[in-house]
Amino acid sequence: xxxxxxxxxxxxxxxxxTICIILIHTNxxxxxxxxxxxxxxxxxxxxxxxxxSVKNKxxxxxxxxxxxxxxxxxxxxxxxxxxxxxxRFILDSLKDENFFTDVFGINSINPYxxxxxxxxxxxxIF
Length: 126
Prior knowledge:
Elements: H1 7-25, H2 35-56, H3 64-90, H4 99-103, H5 113-125
Helix pairs in contact: 1-2, 3-5
């Protein structure tokens, strides 16, 4: 029997979970209340993929933290720059703004910033 947890299957399940998470954030009634389920599925299959990669590739962890953090944190900072710019210059809704803490995610101007910090934390533990 073919391995039910092969890379292709895991990537397909992660893709489906990702799409469902995106739909949850659009306030789609059909997916209401399923955010924790699909996030858990996504984290499980991502963690399993990391485990298999570490197990099968000798030097997989060389530069792991730096590479993963850059792939996660850089888009987060760029997104925060966009959010900051819209809130500050277009909507004029930032009071007591601090560019550094807002853009680098120390202050929470991005409502989904918790997710980035959670992934960084989990990578650090891994």
